[in-house]
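queue> pop job 88
queue> type: inverse folding (structure -> sequence)
queue> payload:
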């Protein structure tokens, strides 16, 4: 160890396939002394590009083991203050439901230099790999990406689900496996047609990727029967059937 301050690189690792890690992300791993990684980050890329690095796993398992965010902050500061180059590797893009902004604030507030390497977001990449475009001429002119971590009727929910139902936008739900039934019911009650196409995609960008498609009023049941489990993404909107209709 030395007294020279190191740095933290906030790296988005992409949706899971190591081939979808950006070149900038690869180069960051090659510079790393320490990699602090989430469980959904491309772990194979660490082995390939950062064999020299100490690897610290801080993944969060839904309703299971997890490393408190405060401890992750402490790890980043501890290693950077010891003069190390620290790569904070996340799945997807760390600035979309990845708490990248919080980690940036903590590090810069402590005087630690921070670099940001954006990643390919699973919110867009995973549906694309399943044959679902986020926008499509004549069907959707925009996308709303929302967290389904808490149900619409939960006091902690900050999403205007009823408002979303009437926007005409493609709705992409991350972290919404357990709450999917409640989300669908809320959207239908607010005016979204029950027959709207929907799809749930599990283990995106991996060899085990699987897709379940159904009407909005049946997607929760279909996902359950299809064994859809986290990590999974649900897409709601006419774009779900766009390429089936034209392909």
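queue> result:
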């Amino acid at each position: 160890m030395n007294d020279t301050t190191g740095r933290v690189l906030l790296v988005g690792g992409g949706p899971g396939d190591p081939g979808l890690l950006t070149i900038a992300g690869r180069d960051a791993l090659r510079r790393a002394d320490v990699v602090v990684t989430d469980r959904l980050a491309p772990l194979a890329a660490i082995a390939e590009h950062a064999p020299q690095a100490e690897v610290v796993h801080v993944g969060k398992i839904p309703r299971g083991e997890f490393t408190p965010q405060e401890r992750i902050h402490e790890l980043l500061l501890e290693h950077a203050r010891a003069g190390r180059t620290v790569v904070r590797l996340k799945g997807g893009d760390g600035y979309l439901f990845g708490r990248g902004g919080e980690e940036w604030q903590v590090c810069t507030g402590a005087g630690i230099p921070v670099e940001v390497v954006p990643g390919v977001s699973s919110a867009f990449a995973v549906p694309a790999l399943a044959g679902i475009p986020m926008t499509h001429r004549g069907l959707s002119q925009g996308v709303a990406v929302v967290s389904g971590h808490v149900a619409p009727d939960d006091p902690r929910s900050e999403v205007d689900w009823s408002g979303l139902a009437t926007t005409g936008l493609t709705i992409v739900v991350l972290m919404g496996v357990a709450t999917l039934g409640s989300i669908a019911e809320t959207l239908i009650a607010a005016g979204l047609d029950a027959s709207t196409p929907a799809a749930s995609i599990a283990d995106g960008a991996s060899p085990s990727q699987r897709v379940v498609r159904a009407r909005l009023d049946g997607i929760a049941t279909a996902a359950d029967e299809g064994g859809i489990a986290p990590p999974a993404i649900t897409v709601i909107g006419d774009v779900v059937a766009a390429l089936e209709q034209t392909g």
